[in-house]
Amino acid sequence: MDFRIDAVRAKFPALSLTDKGRRRIYLDNPAGTQVPQAVADAVSRCLLTTNANLGGFFETTIAAQDIVDEAHLAMADFLGAASPREIIIGANMTTLTYHMSRTLGRTMKPGDEIILTRMDHEGNISPWLQLAEDLGLVVRWLPFDQQSWQIEEAALAALLSERTRLIALNYASNLTGVDQPGEGVDPHCQAGRCVGLR
Ligand SMILES: Cc1ncc(COP(=O)(O)O)c(C=O)c1O
């Protein structure tokens, strides 16, 4: 694959669109992530030739299942996952987080505590706030350090308790642009459940 910038840009039709002669600059992602031609072609091929429910015994369903399996394998390879079973593909991050919150919520009780950060995207806040409201959970807000622009271990440690059940903490914030110190955070996750979002 040619990774020179012009070759990469040429793969994205949206990048050659112009307005009154001026090329566009797209500043939003991931919801507004532009799509390369190869992806649009693959989605089109899938819809036109392998559109079926999964788990059946006819040609189209088998072909569709192959695509789904390959996608899980490719994503596991890309992210360095131990197994494709670790990969869940869904409508988008927010929807998946809603699903996950409702699943984990079945193990929580009124008075249990969850920790949310002041540096997360709405998609990693609202699902947990709504769960807290529905189940009577206590929400503890984790601030970020305004010098380092990251979550400091001491601030997290101060919020942990016997009732902590979940920490909804991103690994890399697009608010502050820093990676969280993962090694410092991981051991605490054993105190409750830890949800990390990239
Ligand atoms: C950092 C971050 N996390 C999550 C989301 C939500 O993503 P989705 O649109 O897939 O729900 C966004 C959306 O822009 C985002 O910027």
Describe what this molecule looks like in 3D.
By secondary structure, this protein is α/β, with parallel strands linked by helices. It has a domain at 93-197: Aspartate Aminotransferase, domain 2, CATH 3.40.640.10. The chain is built from 7 helices and 6 strands; from the N terminus they run H-E-E-H-H-H-E-H-E-H-E-H-E. It has helices at 5-10, 37-49, 59-79, 93-105, 126-135, 153-159, 182-189; strands spanning 18-19, 22-23, 113-117, 138-142, 164-170, 193-197. The strands form 2 sheets. A 4-stranded parallel sheet has the order 4-3-5-6, with helices on both faces. A two-stranded antiparallel sheet has the order 1-2. Helix 7 (182-189) links the parallel strand 5 and strand 6 (193-197). Helix 4 (93-105) packs parallel to helix 5. The relative contact order is 0.09. Residues 183-194 have low confidence and may be disordered. The structure holds pyridoxal-5'-phosphate.
